[in-house]
Write a structure and sequence with these properties.
The structure is a homodimer of 149-residue chains. The first copy, chain A, folds into two domains: 41 residues, no CATH class; 105 residues, Winged helix-like DNA-binding domain superfamily/Winged helix DNA-binding domain (Arc Repressor Mutant, subunit A), CATH 1.10.10.10. Helices cover 63% and strands 7% of the residues of chain A. In chain A, a hairpin with a 7-residue loop joins strand 1 and strand 2. The two termini of chain A are 28 Å apart. At the A-B interface, helix 2 and helix 7 of A face helix 2 and helix 7 of B. Chain A binds a DNA duplex (30 and 30 nucleotides) through helix 5.
Chain lengths: 149, 149
DNA sequence: ATTTAAAATATGTTAAAACAATTATCGTTT
DNA sequence: AAACGATAATTGTTTTAACATATTTTAAAT
């Protein structure tokens, strides 16, 4: 569906402007789809985001600052999100003895397990994207990267 | 900057998966930039969204349902957002006497004025996007549209 | 004409995000 | 070493979003 139809707006200031709106809209569209998958697991999009970053680091840890930077969120939110994940047993939070200001966050086995389960479902959903060619996906990635400079 | 560097993740499951992450990340990046512009005006992204929709309709009105449908965030509460804008004097809300269930929302002159001011700044920011060719923007729009089916 | 169902919006409540201020630790300067 | 500023994270508060429920009005059915 074209963005014009999705938000029922026929004219845009420019193709650039339309592009910005389109990215925002598509992102929300994806997040909503993800939320549906995540809901039964009792995990929010942002929590999921953190878990994935941590898995990318596994078995190494990540500091709060690292998490905050990669998820483009406020530090205070990252802190509380991690705490919620800790209570659920998905992450481990320990003080870094090398620098006691810092905190080391690791994903637990339980965290990896739930990610695994979610992945199966998400991968299935992402199969729909195979209407795209890999080349097209590549182009899109390239354009987005360029957009952010 | 490539998404790999932005979130410091070297490998992705697939180019498709990377694309999804990239859209989410870029969207947050844009929203953050917009928020910086809007903040001095005391207006949130969502409120800004509503004002622009109303300007698109001007001098006609829009119903709550119309706003809800056209907003980028379909889940948001248009009713309360409009109320906030009304208190600030940017919109007018009147009951539709033809159908008293409905409400007619109009943008005020004050609303148009503030949009004008914001536009100048935003337009300046969006100039950066001219590193894109119109063709590229067109391709990106096309791909995003295709992604959502 | 009354009842029922649907439509449009508003409100109440809980969870999350944004904002501001605070605490704890470290590195540096004097 | 004491004082200072910078860094990393947390905590308190306010605002906004998400979700469910309620209210008001209209349209349809009996």
């Amino acid at each position: 569906m074209k963005i014009e139809d999705a938000i029922q707006q026929t004219k845009f200031k420019s193709e650039y402007h339309k592009m910005v709106i389109n990215i925002l809209y598509t992102s929300k569209w994806i997040e909503e789809q993800n939320a549906v998958v995540l809901k039964p697991f009792g995990i929010s999009n942002q929590q999921f985001n953190i878990l994935r970053i941590l898995r990318g680091q596994h078995p190494k840890c990540a500091s709060m600052t690292t998490l905050q930077e990669r998820m483009l969120d406020k530090m205070s939110n990252a802190s509380r999100l991690v705490e919620k994940l800790r209570v659920k047993g998905y992450v481990l939070r320990t003080i870094d003895e090398k620098n006691r200001r810092q905190v080391k966050v690791n994903i637990t086995d339980k965290g990896l397990e739930i990610l695994q389960k979610i992945d199966v479902i998400m991968a299935n959903k992402e199969k729909e994207f195979e209407k795209f060619s890999v080349d097209e996906a590549f182009v899109l990635n390239d354009l987005l990267d360029k957009l952010r400079n």
